[in-house]
Amino acid sequence: MLVYLNGDYLPLEEARVPVLDRGFLFGDGVYEVIPAYGGHPFRLEEHLQRLENSLRAIRMEPPLTRRQWREIFHRLLDPLGDADQQLYLQVTRGAYERRLHAIPGTVTPTVFVMSNPLAPRDPELVARGLAAVTLEDIRWQRCDIKAITLLANILAQQQARDAGADEAILVRDGLATEGTASNFFLVKEGRILTPPKSAHLLPGITRDLVLELAREAGLPCAERDIPVEELKGADEIWVTSSTKEVMPVTRLDGRPVGNGRPGPMWQKMDALYSACKARLRAGPTNQCHE
Ligand code: PDD
Predict the structure, then answer these.
(1) Is 277 a residue of the active site?
(2) What pLDDT, in 10s, does the model give residues 121-174?
(3) What is the number of domains present in the chain?
(4) Which pLDDT belongs to residue 161?
(5) How many Å lie between the centroid of ligand 1 and the Cα of residue 49?
(6) Ligand 1, atom 4: nearest CA belongs to which residue?
(7) Beta bridge partners of residue 31, listed in sequence order
(8) Is 205 in the pocket of ligand 1 (CB under 6 A)?
(9) Cα separations in angstroms, 230 against 18, 170, 177
(10) Which residues are registered as beta bridge partners of 247?
């Protein structure tokens, strides 16, 4: 498998970064995960816009133009045929001559991109739905930045696993915010709800698409704060991400969500989402664009 590193295309085994890289020393960097269907990156402009926002927030300039990113993605994807892929890109502030907390004046960013197969969702898991637990959000105040510094997310994910669950829904000041690597939606009395964008959650590309698809299909939806108690009375809960797509959550904190099975609104949304992917596979000139 070829990967991109600082201008070169080389086998993954040969890709090396210096130990003084600030990504390695401090987690000083940002990333994106972009699905690609039929060789076409999904919602590419939205992902690149979020990358630029993350970079600006950590006081970095975009190291490449959108056109250059596009070229790299196609160079990696084209030899892989039509199989679904996930592009992973990471930009760190780069390697400085010594370990220094302050941002060095001159340092060259490290840019890394790889593509890995995006395995189809396990149909049994989709049919059964995920189990989730609620956990206190112990992260920082800038969860809108897609930072590579993911220790709190990792610990929360592992805590969920230890409890026999697949995902944790994080709670801050009594409000449910997002999953450890996903956004969440709740369905109550026919209305689709998700928390508004804020510094306490990542503005998910899948989240935005779900809202867009709901509005296009005339499904009632709203962005508003969701107190954690509301999760208990939800008819349906979903988690969304570029790799999970829209997954039903059928157990929360050991109790069934609604009737304990993936709900009818989820079925509608999943069908809309799948149709969107199918249009992109057929060619990039449509609303679910590259
Ligand atoms: N994570 N919230 C968090 C904390 C996330 O890490 C992610 C995605 C999302 C969903 O964002 P999107 O719909 O743009 O994928 C929300 C990626 C997939 C990851 O870390 O692998």
Answers:
(1) no
(2) 999 999 999 999 999 999 999 999 999 999 999 999 999 999 999 999 999 999
(3) 2
(4) 98
(5) 15
(6) 181
(7) 90
(8) yes
(9) 48, 14, 12
(10) 239
